[in-house]
Amino acid sequence: SNRFRRGDQMSAVTQITMFRVAPGRIDEFLKRSSKMKKIRERAGAKVRYYRTVTGANLPAIVAVAETGGWKAYGEYMAKLEADLEWQKLRAEVRAEGTLIEIVLSQEIEV
Q1: Interatomic CA distance for residues 80 and 4, integer angstroms
Q2: Within a 13 Å sphere around the CA of 59, how many CA atoms are in the beta-carbon half?
Q3: Smaller CB count within 10 Å for the chain: N or C?
């Protein structure tokens, strides 16, 4: 059996993006992140944001975008890359902080 499936559904794929926001820039960062969240959701992902409270990269903001499998992830990314508003906001957000890492994860059954 394929342990990376849930019944007839492909397992979720998440893109986890971690930023360290520059001092004094959190308000602008969060405003842009709110707009980016709407674009990501329109492109097909379920999106959640977190503030890290432990770890080596404090303080950091983590954005988690979840899609319904690799095919859905590919479609989601294609929509984002074609979205001019997304490209503009992404550049602005990256100017307000440091991109620490982007991690792709696939849900597994245990």
Answers
A1: 26
A2: 8
A3: C
Please choose, from the candidates 85, 109, 102, 104, the residue with its C-alpha nearest in 3D space to the C-alpha of residue 17.
102
Say how far apart CA 93 and CA 25 lie, in whole Å: 10
| Inter-residue contact 50 to 106 (CB < 8 Å) | no
Per DSSP, the three-state class of 45 is coil
- What's the CA gap between 40 and 50, in Å, rounded? 16
Give residue 59's identity as a one-letter amino acid code: P
